[in-house]
Amino acid sequence: METAPLAVAIPLLGAGGLAAVATRLGRAGAEAVALAAAVAVTALCVALLVRTGSGLEVYWFGGWEPRAGTAIGVSFAVDAIGAGLATLVSALMIAALVVMWRYRETEAPHFQILMLLFLAGMVGFCLSGDLFNLFVFFELMSVAAFALAGFKVEEDEAVEGSLNFAVTNTIGSFLVLTGIALVYGRTGTLNLAQMGGALEAHSVDGLVVMAFALLAAGFLVKAAVVPFHFWLADAYAVAPTPVCLLFAGAMSELGLYAVARIWFDCFAGALGPEADSLRLVLIVAGSLTALLGAGMCFAQDHLKRLLAFATIAYVGVFLIGLGLLTAEGIAGAAIYVVADGLGKAALFATVAIIQHRRRRVSELALRGKGRALPFTGALLALGALSFAALPPFGTFLGTSMLEDELVATGYGAVIAVLIATSALTAGAVLRVIARVFLGWGPAADRPRATEEETKPEEEGAPDSTPAIMFVPAALLLAAALAIGLIPGTTEAFRTAAERFVDGPAYGRAVLDGVSPTGLATASSYSAPAHSYLYAALGLLGAACAAAISLFVPGGRWLRTPARLLGSAGTALRGLHSGHVGDYVAWLVLGVALLGGSFALALT
Amino acid sequence: MSFLPYAVAAWLFLVGLYGIVTSRNLIHLVVCLTVVQSSTYVLLLAVGYREGASAPIYADIPTSRPVVDPVVATLTLTDVVVEATVAALLLSLAVQAHRRFGTLDPDELGALRG
After folding, report:
1. Same domain membership, residue A376 and residue A328
2. Domain span at residue A14?
3. Euclidean distance between CA atoms A532 and B94, whole angstroms
4. What Rg, from alpha-carbon coordinates, does chain B have?
5. ipTM score
6. Which of A146, A576, A579 sits opposite B89 (nearest CB)?
7. Digit-coded pLDDT (tens) for B79-91
8. A-chain residues near B85 (CB < 8 A)
9. pTM of the model
10. By CB atoms within 10 Å of each CB, which of A167, A304, A405, A566 scores lowest?
11. What is the DSSP string of A499-537?
C-alpha cells in the first residue's frame, strides 16, 4: 500500500540528495540519479495502474484514517485515470532525460534537480485525494516549470517567456486558492470525497457556483484554454526542447484532469441537474480553443511554436471530450490524451534532432536542409499521421469515440471541429516535412522567425546524429501506435472512465473504506465505418492545406480569400503580443466570461 | 460574521490585478502579484474566524475554550511559503530581464511576437 507515496517521495528525495552532493557528482552522476529516479517512479506508477484497474486505492498519511465519514488526515486516492496519467508523465520524463543527454548547455546539475521536482509535483497532483494538496502539488510543478522554461536565462526570449508563464499561472493558482477557501468555508473539509457529500447535502447557491467557477478557471489557465492560452506558446517556444516533451505531452492535460476530478468527485452531486448547460459552455470553450490553436499552429514558422499551438488545439479537443461529462467522453479523451501526448512528445524529440543537426528551428530557414536526414523526416511524418488521427494510431480511437459520443449527446456538428483540428495541425507538420526534407515550395525572402528565436541550443554542428537521440522519438511513436493496435485498450480505458465518473462510489471508497463494487468490464470499442471516412477526410484536408500553402499563395482565384485570411491572421498574431499585462487582461476577461457563463448555466 | 473581510479580499484581488495589467515596472508587477496573493490570506482567515474565539493553541487555555479554525491558518502559512518561492523566482527573472533588456518596463521587452 506504500506505492503511491513512494512515487512522490523518490523524486523529492532524489532532488534533495542531488542538491546536496551534485557538485561532487558531476553531470554524468546527476543524470544517472535523475534517470534512475524516473525509472523507479514509472515502475511504481505502472504497478499502481495495474492494481487499480477498476478499483480505487486509498492511502492515508500517518494512518489518519477517517472516522464516521469525517476525514481528518490527508489522503492519496488513486484510480486508474490518475495512475495512468502519472504513468504517462513519468514515462515522458524518462524520454526527456534521455534526449537531454545530448544537450551540453550547462554542466550545472540544477537541471536534473528541477526535473525531479517537476516530476514529483506532477505525480503527486495525479494521485492526490485532497483539494489543498492538489493545490500544493500544482504549485510545486508550476514553480519547477517556470524555472525550467526560463532555464536558458542568457536569452532574451527565455526570460520574457518565463516571466509571462509565471505571472499568468500564478494568478491562475490564486483563483484556485480562492475557490478552495470558499468551498472549505461551505463544507469544512478539504477531502474531495467528503466535500462531494457535504456539497450535495446542502442547497446549491451562488457560493457553490462561484467556487466551482474559480477552481475551474484556475485549472484552465494551466490547461491554456482560450483566452488563457497566451502564455503557453511563449513558454514552450523558449523552454529547452527536452522540457517541451513534458510540457506538451502532459502538463497542459493535468489542468483538465483537475477540472474533471473536482467536477465528478465534488460538484457533480450538487450541480448535476445543470450538467446540460455546463456541457454547452465547456464544448463551446473547447471548440474555440481547438480552432484558434489549430489556425495559429498552421500560421507558425518557428517549429517549437508550431507544436505549442498544436498543444493548445488538442487541449481544446480534450476539453470537448471532458465537457461531454459522460463516461464515454472521458474514455475517449483519456485515450486521446495518452496517444496524442506520446505523439507530440515524439515530435518535440524529433525537433530536438533537427536542432542538434541544423541549429535552426525556423521552417523557412531550414528549407531543403533536411534532405540528408531521411530518418528524422520519417519520424516527423509518423507524428503528422498521429495528428491526423489516422488508424491504427491511438488518436484514431480517441477521436472516433469522441465523435460517437458527440452524436449521442446531440452535438454532432462539433465533429467538424475535430476534423478541422486534425487537418490543420497535421497539415502544418506535413508542410514542414515537404519544405525542410524535400525542399518544396518557394524560397523565402527572409525567415519570419527572428534570428534570436532560432539561436542554436548548443555549440558546434555535428556531422551525424547519435543513435540514442532517435530512440526516444521512435519508442514514443511505437507506443502511440501500440495504443491503437493492442486489443483490450479500449475496454481498459472505458472501465477506468466508468469508475472515474462515479463520484458516489469514490466517496464511499475513500470515507468508509468500502472497496468499489466490481464494474461489469466495459465492452470493447470498434470504430464504425464513418470514423474511417472522417479520418480520411482529415488527412485529405491536411494534404490540401499543406499543398495550398506551399504552392499557390499567389493564385489569382485565391488572392482575395488569401488576403482576407492573411489580415485576419495578422490581427490574431498581433494579439499574441508577448506583453504580460495584455495576457493578464485577457485572463481577467476570460475569468469574467467563464464565471458569467457558469453562473448562467448552473443556477 | 462581518461582510467586511470578504469585501477587503475582493478589493485586494481586483486592485492587484489592475496593478499587474497596467504595470510599467517588473518589480512593481511582482509586488502587485503579492497584493493579489494577500487577498487569499484575508479570505482564508476570514473563513475560519469565530466571534470571541482565541488562537488555536491549547497549551495554556482550557480545551473547552472556542478557538478559530486552525486549518485555515495552516493553509495560509503554506500559501505564504509557496508564494514566497514564486516571488523570489519572479524577482530573479526581473533582475535577469534588466540585465538582458536594460529596462524593467514590460512594454519594452518585446522579444516574443505572434
Report:
1. yes
2. 1-129
3. 51
4. 19
5. 0.94
6. A146
7. 999 889 999 999 9
8. 139, 143
9. 0.93
10. A566
11. HHH-HHHHHHHHHT-PPPPPPPPPPP----HHHHHHHHH
